[in-house]
Every structure is written in C-alpha cells, then in structure tokens.
Amino acid sequence: MRRSFGGADPVGDRVAGERGVSRRLHLVEGGREAGRVPDALIRRVRGAMIEVEGISKSFGETRALAGVDMSVPAGTVQGLLGPNGAGKTTLVRILATLLAPGTGRARISGVDVQQDPNTVRSLIGLAGQYAAVDETLTGRENLVMVGRLYRLGTKLARARAGESLERLGLAEAADRPVKTYSGGMRRRLDLGASLVGRPRVLSSRPGSAAT
Fold first, then answer.
1. Contact 93, 100 (CB under 8 A)
2. How far apart are CA 164 and CA 167, in angstroms?
3. Dihedral sign of CA atoms 15, 17, 22, 27 in order
4. pLDDT-derived band of residue 206, with 50, 70 and 90 as boundaries?
5. What is the pTM of this model?
6. What's the rounded Cα separation, in Å, for the pair 140 and 147?
7. Which stretches does DSSP call E strand in 94-152?
8. What domains sit in the chain, N to C, each tagged with a CATH number?
9. Strand ranges (DSSP E) for the chain?
10. Quick one: DSSP state of residue 172?
11. CA torsion angle 63 65 67 68 (round to 10)
12. Among 45, 82, 55, 88, which Cα is nearest to 37's?
C-alpha cells in the first residue's frame, strides 16, 4: 500500500509543492486505486491505524498540503512518495504532533493528534533521515538511555535494548562505542531506538541504507 505523487487522478488529494506547483496524491493498494473503496469499509474490515481527513497546511503564501485524506490499515507498510516540496515531511510532522495542521484532523489508533498529543506520542516511534545517536556511548547504552527516557525501569529498559539489538543484528557490536559503527549500523541503531518503546506506528524517513 502506498501513496504516490503525480498524474491527474480524480480520487487523489491536491498537494501543493514549495514552488507553487499543485500535484495529485493518490492511494494505490494491490495495483488498484483504493480510493474507489469507501474508507469506512476499509477501516471496518482491517482497522485503520492512521486516519487523515482534509489536512491542509500553509507556510505564509506557500501551501504545503491541501485537503489530504488517507487511511492506513493496521499491519501494513505505507510509503509517501513524491518530489522535494510535495509535503511529505509536513504530513509526517503533523502525524507526529510536531506541527499543527491548518485545517482537518488526524488520528493515530483512534486518538486525535491535536486533542490528545501525549497519548499519540506514546503510540508512535519516529526515526529521522539521519541517525541521532550518541557516538561516545555503546549501542546498548544508547538504547537503555532511550528506554529510561520512555520512563521504563532500568531492568526493563535493558531488556528492551537487548531485544532491539538482537532483532537488528547488532548484538555482537552492542558493547562497542557507536563511533566505531559503520553508517548502516548507526541507522539500524537509530531504528532500534524507535522500537524500544514498542510503538504501534513506526515512521522512518529513508537516508543511507541500513546495511
């Protein structure tokens, strides 16, 4: 399931780029336009984890988003594709409660991102384009620190850190300083930090390959 930019799809949502060029955003699922299927039916059958309704956002005279609608079922992978300035990062920031929409509403697991941002933050994990890890700490220490920031007990934080390191193939390097890690290993560690809180929704912006 993915969203892509471009074309003149009548079921799409208009998205304006930073240069004022309007583009169409449409949803494709299994090779078919899922926009032809009522959103209410999709939510009822599969359960919507992310719901976006009529989201718009402007920065001065620049309109970044214009009436975006999106429904992402639980247990699926969603990709936002488009050129620079198409509004992808703006939409992710709104969903992550880092930016308020101009109009419209968004929900994560049924929780409104504006009305209850604290609960939404407990449901999501966010990994940015670049790895945000402390190079002076070991991989394990980085993840334990994140767990403690999630207010996990020390024992549980260490257990979660170990699980993430094992899952991402970093167990053997867990006790090495991160400054000795390759770029791909740092990306995996950053992703692991986003998983320590066991989020229901994980957002990751691709950067260098996590190899």
1. no
2. 5
3. negative
4. low
5. 0.65
6. 11
7. 103-108, 111-112, 124-127
8. 2-124 (3.40.50.300), 139-204 (no CATH)
9. 2-5, 13-16, 22-29, 32-33, 48-59, 62-73, 79-80, 103-108, 111-112, 124-127, 201-204
10. G
11. 170
12. 45
pLDDT for 57-103, tens place per residue? 999 999 999 999 989 888 888 888 888 888 888 998 999 999 999 99
29 Cβ neighbours under 8 A, 6+ residues apart: 1
Which amino acid does the sequence have at 5? F
CA distance 29 to 87: 21
The pLDDT, as a whole number, for residue 29 is 37
Of 141, 145, 135, 129, which is closest to residue 210 (Cα–Cα)?
Answer: 129
Contact 165, 175 (CB under 8 A): no
For the stretch 38-70, pLDDT in tens is 454 444 445 688 999 999 999 999 999 999 998
pLDDT one-digit tens code per residue, 149-171: 989 999 999 999 999 999 999 99
The CA distance from 39 to 62, in Å, is 29
Start-to-end Cα distance in the chain: 24
**How would you class 157 by CB atoms within 10 Å of its CB: exposed for 0-12, middle for 13-18, buried for 19 or more?**
buried
